[in-house]
Design a protein that fits this description.
Number of strands: 26
Largest sheet: 12 strands, antiparallel
Radius of gyration: 26 Å
Strand content: 35-45%
Low-confidence stretches: none
Mean pLDDT: 92
Number of domains: 2
Number of helices: 3
Distance between the termini: 12 Å
């Protein structure tokens, strides 16, 4: 047996756009806009349903209603947080809750007049909280609804309020902000009033939670984010779904941005040549890649981690069926997920143990152990292999693990980059037979 090492295997690198990214029931309510010199003008808007609190409300005989405020808790920011930006709150003009999914290119009609707005720089927020006072007329509308019943139901609220939307000012160039959407205790409507004794009290209407009932096939979509890019004047101006842009057209680099669906496609066109060497066993295989711009930027932070999605013969991510259980419920429902390279030590043909590729600040690079994946590809290329651990050699797509929640982007060196070359480092054994 002869052990060999190589890192000169040709890797074909390109940038592609996938046609849709799900944004239903995301972790954040995203809103804002900034101009990215590489990716274009990025704009985010959020649309969401509201829900009354479960307890009955008692305002007393002569309450004095003061103000209605949209309270938002910031958990995420991307862009220049030192610049001022404006967030507008609008009423939805159409229902939002539905069975099925929303994608990041979708939108919802809103009432033209904003209920309220606030201008601020994200870095100056006290306690990460944004409070936007809403119009007196909307306050009175909510008060009238509350005074018509002792315990506000979801149906009663939906009849008056389809939901709300957060929109940026069209002239802003600052940051995309992410406000908590996972807890009704962090983002909500707060109605302030004085009771009969003049004491200040509050009534809260929270974001509608994600839930599922026994007769439903999946949780309803109760919120989503729209994120769009105007790429005019950038190197990505002509990008279209599943039409690869070769790295040479991008300065020997490749682009990645999660919610916008921009990813780096990796192909290994010459792995079949190894079959000419005889029986080959992969000892170790590492895919290494490095950022080439804004590595230390405080505003354009890189994605925290990446997944490697497996592609089909058409260059599209492969989807596989799975069963899910909604937190807090025993109801099982069917879903689909992208097939991803699995962590070493687990079944390479399985799902649920997805490889996470993190940045190493010491080497300033990402190092993905894809040994089992490459072995399965080699098995599929071999006419001698008789087992079932086979994968097709259609390539991989690098995308952030936070695909549906964040807009963090990165530009990495391609295989032809002079200083930050993406490459496959391979240790393999040639099994000699007589």
């Amino acid at each position: 047996m002869k052990v060999v090492f190589t890192d000169t295997i040709t890797v074909k690198t390109s940038t592609i756009l996938i046609d849709s990214v799900q944004s239903s029931n995301a972790t954040y309510l995203l809103v804002g806009q900034y101009n990215d010199p590489y990716f274009g003008k990025i704009t985010a808007k959020s649309f969401f349903a509201m829900a009354p609190r479960a307890a009955a409300h008692k305002f007393g005989s002569n309450p004095q209603f003061q103000r209605l405020t949209m309270v938002l808790y910031k958990q995420y920011a991307y862009g220049d947080t030192t610049r001022s930006q404006t967030v507008y709150v609008h009423k939805l003009a159409v229902p939002i809750v539905k069975e099925g999914r929303y994608y990041s290119f979708e939108s919802k009609a809103v009432e033209p007049t904003p209920l309220g707005s606030k201008t601020f720089a994200a870095k100056d927020l006290f306690g990460r909280v944004v409070e936007i006072d809403l119009s007196d007329s909307f306050r009175d509308e909510i008060v009238s609804l509350l005074q018509s019943t002792d315990s506000l139901t979801q149906e009663q609220l939906d009849a008056v309020l389809y939901g709300l939307a957060l929109l940026p000012d069209p002239n802003d160039d600052a940051a995309i902000l992410g406000f908590s959407a996972s807890s009704a205790l962090l983002s909500f409507l707060r109605l302030e009033y004085l009771d009969d004794k003049g004491a200040k009290n509050y009534y809260y209407i929270g974001l509608r939670p994600v839930s599922i009932t026994a007769n439903e096939t999946a949780p309803k979509a109760v919120r989503f984010n729209q994120v769009t890019a105007d790429r005019s004047g950038t190197a990505l101006a002509g990008v279209s779904p599943y039409a690869p842009i070769p790295e040479a057209a991008l300065g020997n680099a490749a682009y990645i941005q999660g919610l916008l669906g921009v990813g780096t496609k990796i192909e290994f066109p010459y792995l079949s040549e190894f079959q000419k060497l005889g029986l080959v066993a992969i000892n170790q295989a590492y895919l290494l890649f490095s950022p080439v711009v804004d590595v230390e930027s405080p505003f354009y932070t890189m994605p925290n981690a990446f997944h490697l999605l497996e592609l089909d013969a058409n260059g599209k991510p492969i989807k596989v069926p799975i069963s899910r259980t909604q937190p807090g419920s025993s109801i099982v429902w069917k879903d689909t997920i992208y097939r991803k390279v699995q962590t070493e030590g687990f079944d390479p043909l399985g799902v649920g143990q997805d490889l996470l590729v993190y940045y190493d600040p010491l080497t300033r690079s990402y190092n993905a152990n894809i040994t089992s994946y490459i072995q399965c590809v080699m098995n599929g290329l071999s006419n001698r292999y008789q087992g079932s651990a086979i994968k097709n050699n259609h390539g991989l797509l690098i995308l952030p693990s936070s695909l549906s929640n964040e807009v963090n982007r990165i530009i990495i060196g391609g295989h032809l980059h002079s200083g930050k070359r993406l490459h496959l480092r391979l240790f393999y054994s040639i099994i000699q037979t007589e």
